[in-house]
Specification:
Elements (H helix, E strand, L loop, with lengths): L5 H9 L4 E5 L3 H10 L3 E4 L3 H4 L11 H14 L4 E5 L9 H15 L3 E3 L4 H12 L4 E6 L5 H4 L9 H17 L3 E5 L3 H10 L4 E4 L7 E4 L1 H4 L17 H17 L14 H18 L1
Parallel strand pairs: 1-2, 1-8, 2-3, 3-4, 4-5, 5-6, 6-7, 7-8
Length: 287
């Protein structure tokens, strides 16, 4: 299969072919998801929660993103690899943002970067796209603004907020963004945004009318049961599967059922006799 590109995604929107995106943070998952046919692999700053164990995404650094993106890029042959730009990697100044985005693109193997925000970053998005850096936008619930929002509640549920989000999406499109993630907004608003843009929208908690859908892979696979957002569908319960496997391993090791003969390496009798004779001779020399 050919690599998914910005042009591919544009054509998919035009032909109403839905786009699929899942998160990936390492080579193994990237290879599995890529071979399954996922269109986009997002190295999200969600790795702060999922991989690094932070309470939110704010502590994630550019170095963290680059480290994990390198691994994902090695496993992806078909999917586009998009790397999140973490908190404060692009908010300080356009110059610093360009430096960070350039490093991510140049050294990690990413095919694009993702930024949160609308009008306030439109100028930066234009600079990046003019420099040859493909940019995916992100509107609605933007996790890097969790403290400003006061939590992870539904966004743009009032008419004024919805109008602003529509304007923000148009600003990102005009600045050159190739796609926009819409997170946790009313499905009806996402439908309006999607219809009003020539670039694809990718929803997460934004209803079925977006041009594509994204989920955190560990959520979709049921690896967490502490909290499952309303917008997550668990396609399997991998946590239970892993739990059963680990408990079986522990049990078999405890009773000497593993490793069995078929999991061990053995010598034939002639080789063993020679081996033991040579070993005995060696031990005598040591003594």
């Amino acid at each position: 299969m050919k690599r998914i590109t910005v042009q591919t995604l544009k054509e998919m929107k035009a032909t109403r072919q839905k786009i699929t995106m899942l998160t990936a943070y390492d080579y193994t998952f990237a290879k599995i998801l890529d071979e399954a046919g996922v269109d986009i692999l997002l190295v999200g700053d969600s790795l702060g929660n999922v991989i690094l164990g932070y309470e939110n995404t704010l502590p994630v650094t550019v170095e963290d993103i680059m480290h994990h993106t390198k691994a994902v890029a090695r496993g992806a042959r078909h999917a586009m690899v998009v790397a999140d730009m973490p908190f404060m990697s692009y908010q300080v100044s356009d110059e610093k943002a360009m430096e960070n985005a350039g490093a991510i693109m140049k050294f990690s193997g990413a095919n694009a970067v993702k930024l949160e925000g609308g009008k306030r970053i439109a100028g930066l998005v234009k600079k990046m796209t003019d420099a040859g850096i493909p940019v995916m936008g992100h509107l609605g619930l933007t996790p890097q603004s969790v403290h400003q929002f006061g939590g992870y509640s539904l966004q743009a549920k009032e008419a004024g907020e919805a109008k602003t989000l529509l304007e923000e999406s148009l600003a990102l499109e005009e600045a050159g963004a190739f796609a926009i993630v819409l997170e946790k907004i009313p499905a009806e608003l996402a439908e309006l945004v999607t219809a009003g843009l020539s670039i694809p929208t990718i929803g997460i908690g934004a209803g079925p009318s977006c041009d594509g859908q994204v989920l955190v892979t560990q959520d979709m696979l049921g690896m967490f049961d502490k909290f499952v957002p309303k917008f997550v569908k668990q396609y399997t319960n991998l946590k239970a599967t892993i739990d059963d496997a680990v408990k079986s391993f522990i049990k078999e090791v405890r009773v000497d059922a593993f490793p069995a003969s078929e999991h061990s390496y053995h010598m034939d009798k002639e080789t063993l006799d020679r081996f033991m004779a040579e070993l005995d001779k060696g031990l005598e020399e040591i003594r």
